[in-house]
Specification:
4 helices; 69% helix
Length: 152
């Protein structure tokens, strides 16, 4: 049964940072998508307002951006619309963002010294592994050439 449309946020004081980062990322993505749409559509002059021409590509790109921005706010805030299936979907997405932020707060982040030591170990291991693979490749190539399997 559908509840009344209230447009109140779902779990409003939880997962604030995760919601803000997700919303900012989506808005940036949609902004670039709208800009790309504007570049791809033909510029057909529709009307003139105060001597300034209004082109169809601007209206289409702006409309798409506004619609996607509305969907972003719907999904990152988890607004209750009264449509049960949509409310479950947005609530699930908000729960995912809240749980993601909760889990990231439990992570023990390394300090600068630990990060430097770990990076050094990884780089040294990569150089050693690269040298080993190069040597094995040279030996196998020499062996194949010696057996006339590969041209020399």
């Amino acid at each position: 049964m559908a509840s009344a449309m209230s447009l109140a946020p779902y779990r409003p004081r939880q997962g604030y940072h995760a919601r803000a980062i997700a919303a900012a990322g989506l808005i940036l993505l949609f902004l670039f998508g709208s800009w790309r749409l504007y570049d791809q559509l033909p510029n057909v002059k529709l009307l003139e307002v105060s001597g300034m021409p209004i082109y169809s590509s601007v209206l289409w790109a702006g409309g798409v951006f506004i619609i996607l921005g509305g969907l972003t706010s719907l999904f990152t805030l988890g607004l209750r619309t009264g449509v049960e299936s949509l409310d479950e979907l947005t609530g699930g997405f908000v729960d995912l963002l809240i749980e993601t932020q909760t889990e990231l707060q439990k992570v023990s982040w390394p300090n600068k010294q630990q990060l430097t030591n770990s990076t050094t170990v990884v780089l040294v291991c990569m150089v050693i592994l690269g040298a080993f693979l190069f040597a094995v490749d040279q030996v196998v190539a020499w062996l194949m050439s010696s057996l006339d399997v590969l041209p020399s």
